Amino acid sequence: MRKVVFLFCLFVVTNLTAQNKQLLYNFTDIPQSLMTNPGADVKYKWYVGVPFLSGISMNVGSTGFSAYDLFANDGVDFNTKLRSVLSKTTHNDVLSLNQQLELFSGGFRIGTEDNRSYLSFGLYQEFDFLSYVPQDIATLAIDGNKNYMGKRFNLADLSAKADLLSVFHIGIHKKIQDNLIVGARAKIYSSIFNASSVDNAGYIYTNTSTDSYYEQIVYSNLQLNTSGFAQYNDANNTSNAGADIKKGILLGGNLGLGLDLGLTYYPQSNVQFTASVIDLGYISHTKEVESYSYKGFYNYKGLVPHFNNENAAQANYQDFKNAIVLDTLHTKYTTWRPTKFNASAQYSFEEERVVDGSCNCEGTDPSIFYKSTVGAQLFAMTTPKSPLYALTAFYKRNFSRSFQMKATYTADSFSFTNLGLGMSTKVGPVNFYVLADNLLSYTDVSKANSLSFQLGLNVIFKE
């Protein structure tokens, strides 16, 4: 029974936002911008992140509805609100939650002035959750099938995945030419807990020819894969979850490999193009693996069974269980990381000359300093169904060598009113940054379709 409840809870959960970090992307005053593009044009001699404080981020949202739609204190019955939400969402509406905590990070310049490269490294913890709205199944659960004769309720609407993992990484970027920088980052994933159910199929169909004679068909091809949970199903288990998480963070979980690629190109000193591919990788789940399958075909034709008759109801229920079997498997499986693609173009102006060269300059000439930059960024992320996209316009202002701000407007599947603002400041060698999206929603966050923030502390020594 616990397994059935667990499977049901995962299936009916609603969904959350894409992992777009448009404020951080190419904000090269912040070392963590290397995590969005390993080929970013950073100009530090070296940096080190303050452990557990250098990178904290959270991103959550929903394409179909907000918390206010369901939980507003307006006197409307909850079931009415739920039906209203279901009427305006589709099975393609998605919820996504992403949380990251950087445990440690650092980087330093290597090579000579004429043959210069940059090495960066670190470890971070990440939690990913993504699910699609199971619209048909939720409608069937709330209203039943009485008013939906002849409709096929699609079981493929059940699609969700969650992963708690740590990531060890090391990256290098190199100036190939005066106007071209390329970078790559290798990653080792250690999955602590995973639950994935994304390739489901099936339907529930009911039709009737008379008031009492009907046909019901249930075709089910559902499977939920899990890793890291199996030991806790044992009543005699004495494992400590906290200790298991620590072990998993230090490469004790299910392992996988990943790769990030990126570049920066300057056709002119004040014109820049960038692109990156992040998390091109997989995880192989072989430890503490337990999968639950619910597969089979059931076809009932006849009179409406009298479920108030215990013997009749039990017979029909047993026929159903014999036709569609709940089974437990212990076979390894592979999950793919959500791959992100970024690209940007920008134009810098308000040029100033710096005689000592100790600036965070744009372009390849260290004596040139641009106060203002405008541009656009494209983001895309893979999901179990269709990719998620976002388009951002931005303006960056360098108020001084130690204080910069970036403003963004983003249109995506979650919102068309997403205004963001980010700040990076440096006092001596200490860098502090804070970035936040959907600023218009902070007056009432319950009405927001998406929210995100990032902040951190670093110690930086520039050129």
Describe the structure.
By secondary structure, the protein is mainly beta. Helix content is 13%, strand content 53%. The chain contains six helices and 21 strands. The chain has helices spanning 2-12, 67-71, 78-88, 135-143, 241-252, 310-323, and strands spanning 44-49, 56-62, 94-111, 116-132, 152-154, 160-177, 180-197, 201-208, 213-227, 254-268, 271-285, 289-303, 324-329, 333-336, 340-353, 368-381, 388-400, 403-412, 418-427, 430-436, 450-462. The chain has a 21-stranded antiparallel sheet that branches. Strand 18 (403-412) and strand 19 form a beta hairpin. The N and C termini lie far apart (62 Å). The relative contact order is 0.17.
Briefly, what is this?
Helices cover 13% and strands 53% of the residues. It has 463 residues and is mainly β.
Q: Can you summarize the main beta sheet?
A: 21 strands, antiparallel
| Number of separate strands | 21
Task: Give Rg in angstroms.
Answer: 26 Å
What is the terminal-to-terminal distance? 62 Å
Q: Classify the secondary structure makeup into a structural class.
A: mainly beta
Low-confidence stretches: 1-17
Secondary-structure element pattern, one letter each = HEEHHEEHEEEEEHEEEHEEEEEEEEE
The shape, in one word, is elongated
Instruction: State the helicity in percent bands.
Output: 10-25%
Q: Overall mean pLDDT score?
A: 84
How many helical stretches? 6
Strand content: over 45%
